[in-house]
């Protein structure tokens, strides 16, 4: 069995809540190499011939199974592009846990570009959890750029929890989806930036099918001198429903831009967007201080609650 | 327990409070009433440390707390129920109660504070403190959070304001129960039934104690 270093263990704990090798299918990618891989009777995890990603096939009708595919970069200056393709069979129910963490204490930039394509067959249900994290020397760059493409066939359900924790120097996150009849997509994105980090998140959902729905909830906290740009575009091609809600807490000298857009190409498209950017209100701090929290504890409680 | 000595509060040339002196003893149920704009809420905020008085001293259990901030006063046992509870997006009722208790607590313990204000814990423990709650629901969660503090002295700023379907008599029961436990309460109110429940009464008028 593979032995992880303390640094690798820390990244795995932060990104996939790792304490022991998980049940179900998995692939652990450490510094560009697959160090532990397992398929199950219902989930095939295959390395692509070029070594730059995985092909994961979930058999139709699979129930309550999971696949963990964490990525760890702990070698300074490591840069990689990884393409993982997921084929989720008809009526399957699967949990995908994809985390990426970078430790960098060297002088060179480390970077992971992860491209995930999810082909979700009719009636399948996918829960996709992705957490990103970086640590090490503050000035050593730790960049993570995820691109996630979802192709949702009729009656499928895709739930995505996308979270960037501390320590990622810069990120460009691109999430796109096409939804057919009665397919449903729920995206919950949580972004935290500090120092001089930058984050850009672009989400696009095209509601092609009748009664397809998308619900996007993005919450962001920008501290210090960090900069965030969020844009979303929901395109309704027919009778469909789309909702996006984008909230940001801005602190210190940070800057946040939110650019929501809705495109209705049909009279029957019901699309809604809500957006708000603001600082932590003084009254919120005062309320928590009146319960015995210090100002710093109150601020931290508000941020943690907001990003939950 | 609490002594205010010559408390004045001025904003520019305007005097909001003028030489207020009062004493509150252990287990007192002090009512502060008076017309709108008489300075009642300002006085409540001064006791909690949310506003600093321009002049005057505040003593709590013999200790001068005039220069202590809100947190320090809370830690000494002073609690405060806001007239208009604030939204804190992402924070749930259970988070607020847990913060008030100061330690992780289970559903049953957290739920009893919601039950005390007439809210079903199953329905409300995980509700976020945002606009999905009505004004009355927010107010009751606010009072629940103050009960969870188990503080020696609690200042209620117009607890009756906006409690909607929950009745005055339910609110009164909560206040009287606190009184029976020997807790000291200062209640800002316009409501006759609450005013009648107190054992001491102060009427503020134009920033001064009337009579």
Characterization of the model:
Chain A has 308 residues and is mainly beta. Chain A is built from three helices and 20 strands. Chain A has one domain. Chain A has helices at 6-16, 282-289, 295-306, and strands at 25-30, 33-38, 43-47, 54-58, 65-68, 71-73, 79-88, 93-104, 110-120, 125-136, 142-152, 157-164, 170-179, 184-193, 198-207, 212-222, 227-236, 240-250, 255-264, 269-278. In chain A, strands 1, 2, 5, 6, 8, 10, 12, 14, 16, 18 and 20 form an eleven-stranded mixed β-sheet that branches. The model of chain A has no long low-confidence stretch (mean pLDDT 96). Chain B has one domain (2-209): Rossmann fold (3-Layer(aba) Sandwich), CATH 3.40.50. Chain B has eight helices and twelve strands. Chain B has helices spanning 40-48, 70-76, 93-101, 107-116, 121-124, 135-149, 168-180, 192-197, and strands at residues 2-11, 14-24, 29-33, 55-60, 63-64, 78-81, 88-92, 128-129, 153-157, 184-188, 200-205, 208-209. In chain B, helix 3 (93-101) runs parallel beside helix 6 and helix 4 packs across helix 6 (135-149). The mean pLDDT of chain B is 94. The interface between A and B is medium-sized, with 21 and 25 residues.
Task: Please render the helix and strand layout as text.
The complex is a heterodimer of chains A (about 300) and B (about 210).
Chain A (H helix, E strand, L loop, with lengths): L5 H11 L8 E6 L2 E6 L4 E5 L6 E5 L6 E4 L2 E3 L5 E10 L4 E12 L5 E11 L4 E12 L5 E11 L4 E8 L5 E10 L4 E10 L4 E10 L4 E11 L4 E10 L3 E11 L4 E10 L4 E10 L3 H8 L5 H12 L2
Parallel strand pairs in A: 1-5, 1-6, 4-7, 5-8, 6-8, 7-9, 8-10, 9-11, 10-12, 11-13, 12-14, 13-15, 14-16, 15-17, 16-18, 17-19, 18-20
Antiparallel strand pairs in A: 1-2, 3-4
Helix pairs in contact in A: 2-3
Chain B lengths: L1 E10 L2 E11 L4 E5 L6 H9 L6 E6 L2 E2 L5 H7 L1 E4 L6 E5 H9 L5 H10 L4 H4 L3 E2 L5 H15 L3 E5 L10 H13 L3 E5 L3 H6 L2 E6 L2 E2 L2
Parallel strand pairs in B: 3-10, 3-11, 6-9, 9-10
Antiparallel strand pairs in B: 1-2, 1-4, 4-5, 7-8, 11-12
């Amino acid at each position: 069995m593979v032995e992880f270093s303390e640094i690798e263990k820390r990244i795995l704990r932060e990104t996939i809540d790792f304490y022991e090798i998980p049940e179900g299918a998995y692939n652990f990618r450490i510094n560009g190499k697959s160090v532990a891989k397992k398929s199950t009777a219902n989930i095939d995890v295959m390395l692509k011939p070029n070594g730059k990603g995985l092909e994961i096939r979930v058999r139709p009708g699979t129930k309550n199974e999971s696949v963990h595919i964490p990525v760890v970069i702990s070698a300074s200056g490591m840069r990689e592009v990884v393409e993982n393709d997921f084929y989720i069979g008809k009526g399957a129910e699967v949990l995908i846990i994809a985390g990426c963490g970078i430790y960098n204490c060297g002088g060179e930039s480390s970077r992971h570009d992860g491209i995930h394509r999810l082909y979700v067959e009719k009636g399948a249900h996918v829960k996709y959890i992705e957490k990103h994290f970086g640590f090490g020397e503050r000035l050593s760059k730790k960049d993570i750029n995820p691109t996630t493409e979802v192709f949702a066939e009729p009656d499928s359900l895709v739930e995505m929890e996308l979270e960037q924790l501390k320590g990622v120097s810069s990120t460009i996150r691109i999430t796109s989806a096409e939804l057919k009849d009665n397919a449903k997509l729920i995206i919950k994105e949580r972004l935290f930036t500090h120092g001089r980090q930058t984050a850009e998140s672009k989400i696009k959902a095209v509601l092609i099918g009748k009664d397809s729905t998308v619900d996007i909830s993005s919450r962001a906290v920008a501290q210090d001198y960090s900069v965030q740009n969020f844009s979303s575009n929901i395109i309704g091609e027919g009778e469909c429903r789309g909702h996006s809600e984008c909230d940001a807490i801005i602190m210190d000298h940070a800057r946040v831009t939110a650019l929501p857009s809705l495109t209705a190409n049909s009279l029957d498209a019901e699309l809604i967007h809500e957006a708000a950017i603001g600082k932590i209100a003084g009254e919120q701090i005062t309320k928590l201080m009146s319960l015995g929290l210090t100002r710093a504890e109150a601020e931290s409680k508000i941020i943690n609650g907001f990003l939950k | 327990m609490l002594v205010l000595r010559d408390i004045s509060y001025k904003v520019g040339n305007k005097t909001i409070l003028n030489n207020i002196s009062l004493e509150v003893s252990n287990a007192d149920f002090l009512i502060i009433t008076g017309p709108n704009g008489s300075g009642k809420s300002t006085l409540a905020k001064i006791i909690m440390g949310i506003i600093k008085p321009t002049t005057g001293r505040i003593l709590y259990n013999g200790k001068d707390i005039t220069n202590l901030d809100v947190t320090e006063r809370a830690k000494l046992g002073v609690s405060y129920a806001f007239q208009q509870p604030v939204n804190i997006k992402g924070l749930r009722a259970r988070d607020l109660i847990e913060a008030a208790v100061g330690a992780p607590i289970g559903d049953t313990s957290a739920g009893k504070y919601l039950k005390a204000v007439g809210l079903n814990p199953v329905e409300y423990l995980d509700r976020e403190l945002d606009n999905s709650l009505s004004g009355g629901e927010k107010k009751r969660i606010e009072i629940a959070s103050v009960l969870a503090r188990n503080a020696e002295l609690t200042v209620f700023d117009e607890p009756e304001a906006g409690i909607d379907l929950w009745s005055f008599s339910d609110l009164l029961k909560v206040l009287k129960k606190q009184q029976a436990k020997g807790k000291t309460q200062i209640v800002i109110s316009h409501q006759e039934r609450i005013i009648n429940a107190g054992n001491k009464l102060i009427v503020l008028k134009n920033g001064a104690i009337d009579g």
